[in-house]
Amino acid sequence: MSDPLIDSLTAAVQARPDDLPLRLHLAELLVAAGRGAEAIGHAAQVLAREPGNVTAQQLMGRALGTPSPASPAPQPVQSEPAQSEPARSEPVQQPAGVDWSAMEQQFGDVVPPRFTRTGEPDPVQGDQDRIFDVESATITLADVGGMADVKKRLEVSFLGPLRNPKLRSLFGKSLRGGLLLYGPPGCGKTFLARAVAGEMGAAFISLSITDVLNMWVGSSEKNLHDLFESARGHAPCVLFLDEIDALGHKRSQLQSSMRTVVNQLLTELDGVQGGNDGVFVLAATNAPWDVDAALRRPGRLDRTVLVLPPDRPARAAICEFHLRDRPVAGIDLEQVAAATEHYSGADLAHLCETAAEYAMRDSIASGEIRMIGQADMMAAAREVRPSTDAWFATARNVAMFANESGEYDDLAAYLKKRKVR
Asked: Of 7, 74, 361, 372, which residue is most buried, by most CB within 10 angstroms?
């Protein structure tokens, strides 16, 4: 039967997952109520953070049905050394009667190992001093070809207020919150984020889902916290969360273990514990409709910028960039740009690679090196098709049938313009 006190404490622990005394109290009640399986999970999360926590170890033993240290046992547990004794490096004596080897085999996915060999990282504690790559961005928006509309939106919503603190104060413009870049894949969202960091003269930290998720209970949440702490320590800093739909997916569609990761991300974005002054959060996604709505509320990722496939000037600049170190002759970049509408930046890089393959194949066959010419570029444009079509097919349904709040008005306007063409 449900216990109102246990239910209330469970809700409190979900709201405050790092409150270890509260979690231990809940585990104590669960053990007393005969709900040992639930108590094991809470005790394991405490041990993941504090492997030497004797209370958690004792609760784990009781939950597994082993004798309590308080019961008659050959060797009682000494919880702490006498005041006159120096601190000892030996492990704390474990509760009597607990078969730790059997426990590690049975509960290896939630219980950390007791010992590690010298030089081996502990699977739980090894992430405590985790160091994230902090870059110094050397590019600015001037290095981004074309995309005038995107640059204007970034300037109005983000960079302008940052550069003009007096005007920002006069108009009451807050820098709190973040910026969500969305659009089809391969269109330069990560490059834009680096350019924003360079424009601000700020440090740059890029994060993907593989930097966060961990098989150990509580470690994913800790990785997120460590990441934000690193960004706060390097302020001013642009923190770039790539593929935010994978890390911050709608909680209604997630299992409980991933929901706690989303909750931790929300807590860090709010800066409840550490404050996010000087930390500017940029996120990118190909599927904004899959991002949890709480992440997009005011004060979090509340500003949205649509990053579309490069326009004609940008396509010419991208092709020129990818041909700069190759032997070329007589290439009309304007004509190539006109023939590659709706191509992403990645598509254009592949197009230049394909054109180079044509010229190299002929050079091998004839035994004489020839330059990459306009014919190669146009032939490659006929072979390489834009990869953005599939994304726009999905985005069209969202813009037409799921745009009640108007958050996809920019996308709807672009789709309407593209359809007319």
From this structure: 372
| Residue tagged 């097919």 (tokens) | 393
Q: 193 in a domain, yes or no?
A: yes
Residues 278 and 396 in one domain: no
Tell whether 168 and 257 lie within a shared domain. yes
Number of domains, the chain: 4
Looking at the structure, do residues 192 and 329 belong to the same domain, yes or no? no
At 305, list the tokens. Answer: 């910028």
Q: Is 249 inside any structural domain?
A: yes
pLDDT tens-digit readout, 16-36: 888 888 888 888 898 888 888
* Residue 367, both tokens: 């035994």
The phi-psi region of residue 215 (left if phi > 0; otherwise alpha if psi is between -120 and 50; otherwise beta) is: alpha
Structure tokens at 121: 């990282």
* CB burial of residue 83 (10 Å; 0-12, 13-18, 19+): exposed
Q: Report cis status (omega within 30 of 0) of the bond before 51.
A: no
- Residues 343 and 403 reside in one and the same domain: no
Q: Which range of residues forms the domain containing residue 33?
A: 1-67+102-113
Tell whether 164 is covered by a domain. yes
Sequence-ordered strand ranges (E) for 72-158: 135-136
* Whole-number Å distance between alpha carbons of 202 and 197: 5
Strand blocks (E) in 97-213: 135-136, 179-182, 203-207
Distance CA 32, CA 29 (A): 5
**Is beta strand 135-136 parallel, antiparallel or unpaired with respect to 203-207?**
antiparallel
Residue 79, in any domain of the structure: no
Contact between 200 and 280 (Cβ < 8 Å): yes
pLDDT band per the 50, 70, 90 thresholds, residue 333: very high
Give whole-number Cα distances, 299 to 130, 141, 177, 280, in Å.
28, 25, 4, 12
Give residue-wise pLDDT tens across range 242-259.
888 888 887 777 666 678
Consecutive H or E run containing 339: none
The angle at the Cα of 36, spanning 30 to 40, to the nearest 5 degrees, equals 95
User: Could you tell me if 216 and 247 lie in one domain?
Assistant: yes
- 59 Cβ partners below 8 Å, 6+ apart? 24, 27, 28, 31, 39, 43
pTM here is: 0.63
Provide the pLDDT confidence category of residue 81 given band limits of 50, 70 and 90: very low
Cα gap 310→90, rounded to integer Å = 62
